[in-house]
Amino acid sequence: MDASAGAEDEPQDAAGERRRRRTIALAIGFALLALGVVATLSRDAKGRIRTNGVPAQAVVAIASADPGGAGAGAVRTVCQDRELIPSGTGAIRIALTGFRRVPPRLSLTVSEGEAVRDAGRAARWDADADVLVPLAHPLARSVVGSVCIAALAPEQRYWLRGAAVGAFEGARAGGRRLPGRVHLEYLAADGGSWWSSIATIARRMGLGHAWSGASVPLLIVLLTLTSIALGAWQLARSDS
Amino acid sequence: MAAGAHELTRARVAAPQGGRPRGLLARVPLAAWACALVAILNAAAWSLLTPPFAVPDEQSHYAYAEYLAEHGRPPVPAAEDLYSASQTVALRDLRFEATRFVPANVGVWTAFEQARLQADLRTHRERAGGNGGAKAVGGEPPLYYALQTIPYRLAGGTVLDRLALMRLASALLAGVTVLFSFLFLRELLPGVPWAWTVGALGVALQPLFAFVSGGVNSDALLYAAAAALLCGLARALRRGLTPALAVAIGSATAIALLTKYNALGLLPGVALALVAVGLRQEGALRARALRLPALALAVALAPMLLAMALDVTLWHRPAIGASSSEFALRADIRPTLLGGLSYAWQFYAIPLPGMEAPLGPLPFWEAWIEGFVGLFGWVETEWRPWVYQLALVPLAAVLALAGRALLARRDALRRRRLELLVYALLAGSFMLFVAGASYVVHLRTHANVAQARYLLPLLPLWGALLALAARGAGRRWAPVVGSAIVVLALAHDVFAQLLVVSRYYA
């Protein structure tokens, strides 16, 4: 074999080897990335079915089991009428602030007319600093009714957040109308993974734009995947 | 070792070569276009993903462009923002005031709300009644908004139609930024084409960059102009300054100055760089050495001076819009040099013992680390704290590997110390300017306005760090580390998109 030919092949072999290592590294990297995305989407989703449309902008009420001791304007129970609670709701998240070092002691009831549809129990602090109250039973059908929040612990105070509303739309407390309503979120019973919520999320992604529909999330996915593919191709073919 | 030294030693002091802009563009490699296209596609995805007006100040930037298109002149700064009827209705139906700053609040989630939005947009079409984002951005220069009047007019339709096309126009600017970032890396690290791709893709996939460039925000054009400027300076430092290159550098600077007043922070660095190159080229301290730098600075400043003259004479605006905005100095605001330096130090570092700490104990963590890793929406969409802490690992690795690359070539580094000094001065003067502007705002409002996007004009330097980090892994491991860097950048971008999805749609 001609030695000079072997010497010329060596830089090409080295470049080829580097390209091969790059390709393998890319393949492994993408596999790990795909696994990471799948693992993330397999986690529990927030499972928000809907909100009551009241933004959480300001404190609208202070709730305490000892209203007299909690300061002027504090109330024991806050009720909001004409709440549309969707079917499948298994928990209600309340926008409020309180002392997070102790478990929140609140009760929540959902009633339709005079009938109590469900009572929430075992309130707990949510990761996003609100309170989550699971219902005893997920609602089998949508309910237009009242949601009442009652403070149970005299030593605790809860600042309920929401927004100011019109004169006759406010929440009720102690026989009077409050100037605002509380922000509420209605969560699905079992949360489920992000995979199970994908259709709902995709539908919402298609709203609020110049055009609506499934084409919006599909286009986002297509653009992202194309940019990934193009970047990987360019990197794999680069000269070392 | 000779090959490694070669890549950092090609700066020439003798006669300049090949500095004509046409020559520059004609030799743009396919890889640069590919990386630019990645940036455009990524920013376009973000433009669809992010709800309307969920990019910081987007409602004001849109209003400015609308005003310019409808009235044929920039707005006059005022004490409050007033929007046109069509934009007001859009903001109302999108629940703009409720959703910005508050992660728990959501926008349009139901078919009923979408139908109401579209019906209202069709009904309320008035566009000329606003004052062009007069308070938030009205004092800014008009170039970005003039460019945005093109998609504004082409789109027709409703506010959302126009916003969508204007966002795509911004996404194109992301491609320009990455194109010039690639060319900057090509000048900085000649002979290492693969590292240019690593650095350029790192820029293209930076999620904050894509998020801002996917919205209507003048920062998108500032990023592109700054990247072009860095590219020009790198070329001048390596190949020498020619008249054409001086005009190109001046033009890039002019575009930056006509885009946003923040670009004034680049001016000292640019001026010093040009003078340094001129003196080095001439080899002596002669007036002739300043001929081309003066040409570049004249090209840079002339359009801005013309715009200022138009502001005062024709448009009835302040000569420098910042003088009438929240960055203005008033009689009751008493900035001091010591106070400013203390503030600037804490803006980027931590308070030293004995310093007053107006920004809290660790301001740079939230503003710069968290901001760069990801704060989206109106800076309220964020990851859990452990994500930012975990991000320190790859960040530290990049810095360590880049440092290793520089140490391994310190002889070449010594020969190129002028170049390093130029980049350090450019970055330093810009960062100082941003801190100074924030200091004035802090004196007025006691608020900290630091946002990582304000430093993204320096993003090509981040690309350089990534390229160096790939090289710092050594010849054997460079391909693997470079691939890992790009995959990490991709992962960063993808998970940032998922974060925004979870914030607005879940």
Write a structural description:
The complex is a heterodimer of chains A (240) and B (506). Chain A folds into 2 domains: 87 residues, no CATH class; 141 residues, Jelly Rolls (Sandwich). Chain A is 31% helix and 32% strand. In chain A, a hairpin with a 2-residue loop joins β7 and β8. In chain A, α1 runs antiparallel to α4. Chain A is elongated and about 85 Å long. Chain B is mainly alpha-helical. Chain B has one domain. Chain B has 22 helices and 2 strands. In chain B, a hairpin with a 4-residue loop joins β1 and β2. Classes of the chains: A alpha+beta (240), B mainly alpha (506). The interface between A and B is large, with 55 and 66 residues.
Secondary-structure blueprint:
The complex is a heterodimer of chains A (240) and B (506).
Chain A: H1 3-41, E1 48-51, E2 58-63, H2 67-70, E3 74-75, E4 77-85, E5 89-94, E6 96-97, E7 106-112, E8 115-120, E9 124-125, E10 131-134, E11 143-151, E12 158-164, E13 172-173, E14 176-177, E15 180-182, E16 184-188, H3 198-205, H4 215-237
Parallel strand pairs in A: 2-3
Antiparallel strand pairs in A: 1-16, 2-12, 4-11, 5-10, 5-16, 6-12, 7-8, 7-11, 9-10, 12-15, 13-14
Chain B: H1 2-6, H2 21-26, H3 30-49, H4 58-71, H5 85-93, H6 96-99, H7 111-123, H8 143-155, H9 159-188, H10 193-204, H11 207-213, H12 219-239, H13 243-257, H14 267-282, H15 291-313, H16 337-348, H17 363-374, E1 375-376, E2 381-382, H18 385-408, H19 410-415, H20 417-445, H21 459-472, H22 474-505
Task: Spell out the key features of this protein.
heterodimer; A: 240 residues; alpha+beta; Jelly Rolls; 5-stranded antiparallel sheet; 5-stranded mixed sheet; 16 strands; elongated; disordered N terminus; B: 506 residues; mainly alpha; two-stranded antiparallel sheet; 22 helices; 67% helix
